[in-house]
Every structure is written in C-alpha cells, then in structure tokens.
Amino acid sequence: MRRALALLSFGAILALASAPLLASGNPAAGKTKAAACFACHGADGNAVDPQYPRLAGQYNEYLQQALHEYKTGERNNPIMKGMVATLSDQDIQDIAAYFSSLPTKLDTLKGHIQGD
C-alpha cells in the first residue's frame, strides 16, 4: 500500500512539474503574430472556406508540431512553408496558444474533408 501511494505521489509530482511545458505560449502575443494567418484561417480561427483548416480549439501541441513540420518541409505546402519560414520557436508557441484558446465552430467534418 505504501509503495502504491509513493508511486502515485511521484506520478502527481511529475504531472505538475510538466504542466508549464504543456501550456507554453502567450495567446495575446500570438494574436498579434498570427495576423497574416487571418486571411485564410479567420481571425477567430474558424475558416469559412473549407479548403483552409479551422484552427480554433485545436490542441496547442498539435498546432506547434504542424507549424514546425511546415517549417522543416516535413509537411509539403509551399504557401505554409513561406508563412512559417521566419517564425521563431517562441512565435510558434504564441500562435499555437492563440488558436488553441479560441472556441471552435467545427461540429462536424461535413464540407471540411476533400471530396465532400
């Protein structure tokens, strides 16, 4: 029983210690830095045109990963590669924090999947 409590306590400490890492980025700064994104993805992150992904409410870490992948060329999109080329790691964290903090209007994938 003591061992189980010790393991649970250790797990809780690790979870709390890593929480600041998951909440990286400043949404207010991200809103300013994301101004160029608004033309396609909307200022509220809910793109109207289905060819552009809705970013509002997406997971912060997912958005950061996607932006890094566009920057490195792992995701091949010439427009996005150009958009992220000059972004620093902090810029990416801030932009992801902004879009992930917004409420999504996406309730289904209808009209948002190619071929719909």
Characterize the quaternary organization of these chains: single chain
* Level-1 CATH class name: Mainly Alpha
User: What is the CATH third-level topology name?
Assistant: Cytochrome Bc1 Complex, Chain D, domain 2
Q: How many structurally independent domains?
A: 1
Radius of gyration (CA) equals 17 Å
CATH architecture: Orthogonal Bundle
Number of helices: 6
Shape: globular
Q: At the fourth CATH level, what is the homologous superfamily?
A: Cytochrome c-like domain
Would you write up a description of this structure?
This protein is mostly helical. The protein has a single domain (24-116), classed as Cytochrome c-like domain (Cytochrome Bc1 Complex, Chain D, domain 2, Orthogonal Bundle). The chain is 56% helix and 0% strand. The chain contains six helices and no strands. Helix 4 packs across helix 6. It is globular.
Give the SSE layout:
Layout: H1 2-22, H2 27-33, H3 38-41, H4 60-72, H5 78-84, H6 89-101
Helix pairs in contact: 2-6, 4-5, 4-6
What attributes characterize this protein structure?
116 residues; mainly alpha; Cytochrome Bc1 Complex, Chain D, domain 2; 0% strand; globular
Structure in a nutshell:
The chain is an all-alpha fold and 116 residues long. It contains six helices and no strands. Helices cover 56% and strands 0% of the residues.
